Every structure is written in C-alpha cells, then in structure tokens.
C-alpha cells in the first residue's frame, strides 16, 4: 500500500500537480475549531434562558482564559470585555435588560484557515431573542475569531461580533392559534 501511494504521488508531481499529506498532529483541526462557535452558541443560549452559571460553565471550553470579546453594534457603538466571566455578565445584563426569556443562536457559513497552532474563523450569525409569545428581536452579524491551540486544544483568543442588523418583530395578540390538522 505504501508503494502504491508513493507511485501515485510521484506520477502526480511529474504531471505538474502537487501532493500534500495531512498533518498527523492536527488531523481534525478544522472540525475542532468549528465546534468552538457551536460551543459559544450553546453557552449564550444557556444565558438566554436565564442560566448565567450554565453559560459561565460552558464558555471556558470555547475561549482562552484571557480572551478578548467585542461586540460592534449596527450604530457603530462597541463593548469589549476580557475573559469569559466578564463577557457572560455583559450578555446576561443585556438579555435581562431587554426582557428576553429565551434565545436561539444559529451559526452558518463557517470559514476556517489554519496556520500551525493559529487559525482564523469567520461565521455568520442569525439569532432570535424571545421577548414574549408575540415579540422577538432578531440579530444578524458575523463573528471574526482568532483561534490558538494550547495544550492540544483549540480555543478562541479573540472574538469580534459585528452586528449588521437588529430588528424587532411583533404581532398583535390573537385569539386564533395555529391549528394542526387532525388525522
């Protein structure tokens, strides 16, 4: 089998192509890094349910202890915090101050570039913040992350959330409910 791989690699190089072996020390780097943004969403949604301590317990799995986390709002204002506890307290105060009873952070279009023990990751955010049965706030934006590998684990060392929209959607209370068809 080793001989076959060597022959294929040689033919590929002779034909003008390139052949790169995957790094044995970081075979799952991109997957491990992608899991960090999911980790963050789970911690933030715990806080969105009112479970500040639950969010604080999750965030250290996503971030370095001294991570810098910044939110840039659509009007250009920004807030920056150092460390996950300070960020969790900020998120909790925003969620409580706006009367949110639940949140759901959906992450997509994840782009990761790995360079040794450093990486960058961008991902898109669509987040629903429930105020009541008839009112939600919807946020859209982009996370821009700097990620490092420490002690064999990837962690976000710097996260910047750039919000592009923040919109309230409300509907009047209605006596009609969504009816499900009966079988």
TrEMBL record:
Superkingdom per UniProt: Bacteria
Keywords: Signal
UniProt-listed Gene3D superfamilies: 3.10.450.50
Signal sequence extent: 1-24
Annotated SnoaL-like domain residues: 61-160
Chain segments annotated as coiled-coil in the UniProt record: none
Keyword Phosphoprotein among UniProt keywords: no
Name of the protein in its database record: SnoaL-like domain-containing protein
């Amino acid at each position: 089998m080793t001989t076959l791989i060597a022959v294929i690699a040689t033919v590929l190089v002779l034909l003008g192509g390139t052949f790169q072996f995957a790094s044995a020390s970081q075979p799952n780097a991109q997957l491990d890094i992608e899991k960090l943004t999911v980790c963050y969403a789970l911690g933030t949604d715990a806080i969105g349910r009112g479970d500040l301590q639950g969010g604080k317990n999750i965030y250290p799995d996503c971030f370095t202890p001294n991570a810098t986390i910044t939110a840039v709002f659509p009007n250009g204002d920004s807030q920056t915090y150092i460390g996950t506890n300070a960020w969790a307290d900020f998120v909790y105060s925003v969620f409580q101050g706006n009367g949110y009873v639940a949140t759901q952070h959906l992450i997509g279009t994840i782009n990761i570039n790995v360079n040794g023990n450093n990486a960058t990751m961008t991902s898109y955010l669509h987040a629903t913040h429930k105020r009541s049965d008839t009112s939600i706030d919807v946020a859209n934006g982009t996370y821009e992350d700097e990620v490092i590998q420490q002690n064999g684990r990837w962690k976000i060392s710097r996260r910047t959330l750039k919000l592009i929209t923040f919109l309230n959607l409300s509907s009047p209370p209605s006596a009609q409910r969504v009816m499900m068809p009966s079988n």
